[in-house]
From TrEMBL:
Belongs to the plant acyltransferase family. It comes from the Eukaryota. Keywords: Acyltransferase, Transferase. It comes from Digitaria exilis. This is Uncharacterized protein. Signal peptide: none annotated. The keyword Disulfide bond does not apply. PANTHER family: OS08G0543400 PROTEIN (PTHR31642:SF16), TRICHOTHECENE 3-O-ACETYLTRANSFERASE (PTHR31642). Transmembrane segments: none annotated. Pfam families: Transferase (PF02458). InterPro entries: CAT-like_dom_sf, Plant_Fungal_Acyltransferase. Gene3D superfamilies: Chloramphenicol acetyltransferase-like domain (3.30.559.10). GO terms for molecular function: acyltransferase activity, transferring groups other than amino-acyl groups.
């Protein structure tokens, strides 16, 4: 890991605040937090579903102290010989693409030794005029009731059927992301029993490394995300065919490809008074989808073979959804949802009824 941190040196630094009150990274080389733990009573079978929960995070992800630490790692050895690698990375410094690039590099150095590891080192160079940064506000509120997290698995065959169902009348193909997001948006609006005349919003966080002009290299280190918003009346979303809902999402992404991706959006959170960060939630009319589909989630082979499963340890923000590849079923998708506990079972029923 030390070798990888030489190339990914900001992860070995500390968060601070400059004279203007803005967050900055001090590249002081203080290093990452590294913890070794032993789960003497547990086997991989006991936790292999890795459903995000406070307990899963407590067991396998180290508590970050002090809070200025950017990278924290815990290696847990099970009594069966299995190993879990739990990490905490500060989003101020890095997005998912850069995080997986770091894990690929670290595992390659561990597996193949420094001299033989085939790695692409991160790119830290960026011309100051290449990107324009602005800060749209996201309003988080105090949840009106308990939140719950759930994992829904969609098989490869179900994905193929869903993509056929969401193809546009013009013959346009639909990506896995658009198909699953359309299904989720419609089902969530129904499960929440939203008023038909209210406005629903779907937010998408998109990687724009290849979309800006000139494009950034895939190995660009940092955050290169744009936040897209799709809005429509709830009555339209719940009554339209899934192909029409998917078309709304596809057109929003298309507008970014037509030039709206010239700006990088660093999200800034705005919370109502009294809404604590750890338990904040989006308004029930909003849903935010983050996609890890297509990312090298299962490429981190430290010499023990590819990971059995990779997942978030905890999901505590109401209205947040993460899409990721299912390592146990090739071609399937795992959908991690955090929302109001009173509605999540209805979402499950609707989701599988439409598949």
């Amino acid at each position: 890991m030390a070798k990888a941190l030489v190339a990914f040196y900001p992860l070995a630094g500390r968060l601070g605040v400059d004279s203007d009150g803005r967050i900055e990274i001090s590249c002081n080389g203080e290093g990452a937090l590294f913890v070794v733990a032993r789960a003497a009573e547990l086997t991989i079978e006991d936790v292999k579903d890795f459903k995000p929960s406070p307990e899963l995070r407590r067991q396998f992800v180290p508590r970050i102290e002090p809070s200025s630490v950017i990278l924290a790692v815990q290696v847990t050895f099970f009594k069966c010989g299995g190993v879990a690698l739990g990490t905490a990375l500060h989003h101020v410094a890095i997005d998912a693409s850069s995080a997986f690039h770091f894990f690929q590099t670290w595992s390659a150095f561990s597996r193949d030794s420094d001299d033989h590891a085939a790695v692409e080192l991160p790119c830290h160079d960026l011309h100051p005029d290449a990107l324009t940064t602005f800060y749209p506000l996201i309003t988080y509120i105090e949840p009106s009731g308990p939140l719950a997290g759930e994992v829904f698995t969609i098989s490869r065959d179900q994905i193929a059927s869903l993509k056929r169902l969401t193809c546009g009348g013009d013959g346009a193909t639909t990506s896995t992301f658009c198909a699953v997001s359309a299904l989720l948006w419609q089902c969530v609006c129904i499960a929440r029993r939203l008023p038909p005349n209210s406005e629903a919003r779907l937010d998408i966080l998109a990687n724009i490394r290849r979309r800006v002009k000139p494009p950034l290299p895939d190995r660009y280190f940092g955050n290169a995300l744009v936040r897209l918003g799709v809005t429509a009346a709830v009555g339209d979303i719940v009554s339209e065919e899934l192909a029409s809902v998917a078309g709304r999402i596809r057109r929003a992404i298309g507008r970014m490809d037509d030039g709206d991706g010239d700006m990088v959006v660093a999200r800034k959170e705005k919370k109502d008074d009294g809404a604590r960060r750890s338990k904040a939630t989006l308004p029930e009319t909003e849903l935010q989808v983050v996609s890890w589909l297509g990312m090298p989630m299962y490429d981190a082979d430290f010499g023990w073979g590819k990971p059995l499963v990779m997942s978030r340890a905890e999901s505590t923000r109401g209205g947040n959804v993460h899409l990721m590849s299912d390592g146990l079923a090739g071609g399937g998708v795992r959908v991690l949802v955090c929302m109001e506990a009173r509605n999540i079972k209805e979402l499950e029923r609707l989701l599988y009824a439409k598949l």
